[in-house]
């Protein structure tokens, strides 16, 4: 089991910090959703989380329909590498930016000039704002980066650091919004309610400082929080080892499988539930155990994991495609049944009294 001091740290994390920690422990990536009018504040909060809580470099990509493959690559490679303290995971960073005139365009890979890539490396945390608005080829490039942990330049291959987190930051909506394979590759999704606030931003403003001065300064020179992050690389690795050894009893495993089965046959779900989602489900369950100071999974952890794994994956079926239409159901009745039904409703239905029965 984890040390008491580490568990205390975990219990004091905010929702965004905990989502990032889970992804760093499992070496996976996530979607964070929020209301459109607070998206910029959320970007700044995540920047501060990366720096102050985990001591990691970061880059921000502001995506749109005009974002090119060159834009994506240049933003990824916008962190300057420099000598660091012995055994320190910290690297300095600069704000992400786009070149106004891309030097080269490719439909498959994003070559970056040799001059640009010199003395540069990929950031530990990449925040892709409005990734769902980016062209399909940019989203495919993001998927390739996450799967292979590298990006091709004109003269070399840039590898992602060992601790690497890609956050797709979206605004408003429910269900899949990214390209199919990219959406399915994302480990978890989390909705940040504006009422949950922005603890790090609020701390900055309480100190009477401008947020621009906070996120632009060199963290190695100006921030002790970066040199001594709240959650260290050693602690993340310790949690990763504990999660690998977490046990799942036969009864709890059966409950987990029943949830998957109920989701697959739910009349409102289109396209079923993918195999990678099942793999991620099991991985998250084992990760949550040590975070709750347990060496085993419980039914409540299974339910919690299901809400995070499937929220962004479930597609609601179109009324005319609902399976009972094959046997003569009334289309208007089906439309009424599905009206306003979302992925969250489906999950709660499966976890409720009419769904999979939790073991005692």
Question: Could you please describe the fold and organization of this structure?
Answer:
- The protein is of the alpha/beta class and 360 residues long.
- The protein has helices at residues 4-11, 15-26, 39-53, 69-76, 114-117, 136-148, 180-185, 199-206, 211-216, 219-222, 224-227, 233-244, 250-265, 275-291, 299-310, 331-338, 343-351, and strands spanning 30-34, 58-62, 79-80, 120-121, 125-129, 150-152, 157-159, 165-171, 188-191, 269-270, 315-316.
- A five-stranded parallel sheet has the order 2-5-8-1-9, with helices on both faces.
- A hairpin with a 4-residue loop joins strand 6 (150-152) and strand 7 (157-159).
- The two termini are 24 Å apart.
- InterPro entries: Nucleic_acid_metab_PIN/TRAM.
- This is Magnesium chelatase.
Summarize the structure.
It comes from Mollisia scopiformis (Conifer needle endophyte fungus). With 360 residues, this protein is of the alpha/beta class. The chain contains 17 helices and eleven strands.
Architecture blueprint of SSEs:
Elements: H1 4-11, H2 15-26, E1 30-34, H3 39-53, E2 58-62, H4 69-76, E3 79-80, H5 114-117, E4 120-121, E5 125-129, H6 136-148, E6 150-152, E7 157-159, E8 165-171, H7 180-185, E9 188-191, H8 199-206, H9 211-216, H10 219-222, H11 224-227, H12 233-244, H13 250-265, E10 269-270, H14 275-291, H15 299-310, E11 315-316, H16 331-338, H17 343-351
Parallel strand pairs: 1-8, 1-9, 2-5, 5-8
Antiparallel strand pairs: 3-4, 6-7, 10-11
InterPro entries: Nucleic_acid_metab_PIN/TRAM
Protein name: Magnesium chelatase
Organism: Mollisia scopiformis
